[in-house]
Automatic annotation (TrEMBL):
This is DUF5318 domain-containing protein. InterPro entries: DUF5318 (IPR035169). Pfam families: DUF5318.
Amino acid sequence: MDYSLQRRAVLADVYAGRTGLFEVCDASPYLTRAAKYHGEATDVTCPVCRKERLTLVSYVYGEHLGPTAGQAKTQAELARMDRAQEEFSVYAVQVCRGCGWNHLDCSYVLGAEPDPGRQPRRTRRRTATEQL
């Protein structure tokens, strides 16, 4: 899903003075750190400060990801996960490391479709007495 129309509306409000910079340049320290270590640099200049290039940070979510859910991943890590995991969602966020602008850019699904005929994984092992 592409969020460019929503982004355009937010920026129109900023440029018209209806929305303050403090409301849109509010990247959390965690998001800024994820942009630094896990983000992918883009050629897109920040639409607010017009000084820095935006960084794209991709977060993964899915019921089969366990402790990986909610983590930022690089494109290389996403490619590996795409081949090895069941379906999961990716949310890509644009971040300006200079002024703190951030906005959800897009979301998409990666991974293999779950096999409907496959039995669900067991969540715990049975003890020897339970097996009798």
